[in-house]
From TrEMBL, chain A:
Highest taxon of source: Bacteria
Region entry Disordered, spans: 46-92
Keyword terms, alphabetized: Membrane, Transmembrane, Transmembrane helix
Transmembrane among keywords: yes
Name of the protein in its database record: Uncharacterized protein
Membrane-spanning residues: 6-27
TrEMBL record, chain B:
Key words, A-Z: Heme, Iron, Membrane, Metal-binding, Transmembrane, Transmembrane helix
GO function term, MF aspect, one: heme binding
Coiled-coil residue windows: none
Domain Cytochrome c: start-end pairs: 51-194
Membrane-traversing stretches: 6-28
Protein name, per record: Cytochrome C oxidase, mono-heme subunit/FixO
Signal peptide: none
Gene3D superfamilies for the chain: Cytochrome c-like domain
InterPro entries: Cyt_c-like_dom, Cyt_c-like_dom_sf, Cyt_c_oxidase_monohaem-su/FixO
From TrEMBL, chain C:
InterPro entries: Cyt_c_oxase-like_su1_dom (IPR023616), Cyt_c_oxase-like_su1_sf (IPR036927), Cyt_C_Oxase_1 (IPR000883)
Provenance organism: Kolteria novifilia
Protein name in the entry: Cytochrome oxidase subunit I profile domain-containing protein
Keywords of this entry: Electron transport, Membrane, Respiratory chain, Transmembrane, Transmembrane helix, Transport
Residue stretches making up the Cytochrome oxidase subunit I profile domain: 44-497
Native organism taxonomy: Bacteria, Pseudomonadati, Planctomycetota, Planctomycetia, Kolteriales
Amino acid sequence: MHAVYWVIYGTVILFGVTVVAAFVWAIRTHQFQKFQQGAVSIFDPDEPVGEMTDGFPGESGPPPEVLDCDQDELSKLDPPDPTVKGTSIRHE
Amino acid sequence: MNHGPLIFLGVFFTFASSWLALVFTPYVQLQHLTAAKSGETASSYPRPIAGLALVGQRVYSRDGCMYCHTQQVRPEGFGADFERGWGPRRTVARDYIYDRPVMLGTMRTGPDLANIGVRQPSVEWHHLHLYNPRITSPGSIMPSYAFLYRKQKIVGQPSDDALELPEEYAIEPGYEIVPTEEARALVAYLLRQDRTYPLPEAEQ
Amino acid sequence: MSDAVAATVEWTPEKRRAYFARERAGIDASTRLPVLTFFAASVFWLLVGTTLAIIASVKMHWPEFLESFSWLTFGRARSAHLDTMAYGWTAQVGLGVSLWLIARLARAPLRWPRLLVGAAGLWNAAVLAGAIGVLGGQMQSVEWLEFPPFVAPLLALAFVVIAMSALTTFGDRQEGHIYVSQWYLFGALFWFPWLYVVANVLILFQPVRGVLQASVNWWFAHNYLGLYLTPIGLASAYYLIPKVIGRPVYSYYLSIIGFWALAFFYNSAGIHHLIGGPMPAWLITYSIVASVMMLIPVGTVAINHHMTTVNHFRLVLYSPTLRFIVFGAMSYTAVSVQGALQSLRTVNEVSHFTHYTVAHAHLGVYAFFTMTMFGSLYYIVPRLTKWEWASARLIRLHFWMTAGGIMLYFLSLTWAGWYQGQMLNDANVPFMDIVKYTLPYLRTRSIAAVMLAVGHLVFAYLFVLNLLHRGEPRRDPTILGDVKEYRDMIGSEGAPQ
């Protein structure tokens, strides 16, 4: 039975240390900066932020007021263009 | 954030923690449970399931009895398992060391069967009930297990184990319903459901 | 394409658009054969599972129904329903969606498409053999693992092949950022084989002693939903909701926190299925704590999806994908909050052993997962077949039949189950009175099952029409372009890297 407790406590400590280490590492290497940029990685120039990509067949899409695009706000969310070298998220 | 290995490590660790807690530790705690003596009893309990009852266990498992009947008695004060007379004590881990598979069940469309062998010890009752549950328990929604019984022509005297069907369920004259080997095995298994013996950890 | 060639292209906004459209179409095309194979097979099993569901449901209030067929006795029909739905429908449709998402998010073509078709064949042969085994009398009374033991190695092998292909594709990724959906998919593909193999070995092949089987069983069965179906459903929602409405996820922080909380807590929640049972008390308490902590990941997902869609809620009127997935996402919140409450001892004392749990399970696997998958299929299939869905009216019919059916199902059984539990805990109520009390609700459940079946038939019909390219040829709104056209526009084949 004692061996089990060793295994359990050992794992808890190992797990805890790993979590703390990962957190320290993440702060140190600025992993939390420009975080929200990751959310726009699924958009691209062909399917940009602000454009709907699905609809019922044979029907017109929503009227513009439903899409509710604030152009200023959207331009802030534009993903970097990976076709232009040096701007992709990956190059950070 | 492009850190595949890091994600892998996290995914591995979180899962390993649950494996350790829910699989490994209980294993160490319970894998070596054995039958035990309690009080003045001469023999150890529980006793291994054997013989015809073992065949019956397979029938119980294969026809999915577990999906409407549990085999566990919850502690006194938690639910009404006691008050309904489903057992004199809660069932504990040791009660199940010989069960393969363990069929605790999670549904009580029908009553608990942890001690059905004590509560209903009549072989005839079980056969009638399995053949058509409405015979013994009007209003029951349990399926009929008539496919575990055989209809045969009476040659000379009726068989000893022929079912004594009440009038409204009677079949054509000259024929009788007898249990197959599987039906007898299933009843043997049901009668074997007795978890009323004393165990040291259940004495409360 | 080399930098030199890329430099010769003059990147106007139109060409840039065309470049990405072409890349996306090419990646989608690489997944066409295996993903459509998985989808077609899963739709087949959906219909089989639905038929078995109706049989089992009717038998519950009409026990004489088909009673002379031993292979359709309630215990077997019900388990064959569960297993064909679990391994035939949910697992496969989830695999199809995962493979498509992995290739798309990696921006890399799917690896080994033909091998994947082989794996799909093996998977389906195993499910078929398993279903026949269950009905034919080889069933194991182990919840979620009723298939005869020989099926497990086949399913595990097929899954490992599929997961290897997915992970290799993930390794090929062109996209620098690992999107949150990929985290979830990565988890699902890694967790499932581990769970499945451990559970089968410890219960069927080298059975552990006594109630350990029950704890391993619920560790597996709960995690099948929590660590396999849920991550796939969430991955799909995290990709398709923002993609359809054209707005990024509200808070990317929350989505990542949600992932780790799910990975950590969902893992350990399963033993709450054994509250009151013959298990060590610490084990059950541990699971209850984990179950309640599940409110964290659920809260993050709920806030995120709500805030992402909040100003665009009316778009559900215009997008089939969005309406199914939003329904699924809302159900996810509901089922998880309900699950956390249900794991509390006082609630569980009543709800355990009743139809309440059955309703809860269907809220999770159907209202959340299955609806999310329907939504995903509405998005994915036209992009693979290059053919628009045949009828908006039928899509709407499909939605209302399934959404209405599952709500009716959930409400009737939840109500019945709660009172069933109250009466079970009152020894003065004769058992047969409880049975009689539940009968009207069980009949209602059969009506709900028929509604769901109508929805499924409509969907299967639409799916087959789409595969056969029947109906009016349309390109908008889902088919956004043609590879050749883009090639003409860009004037070269390569990538500007």
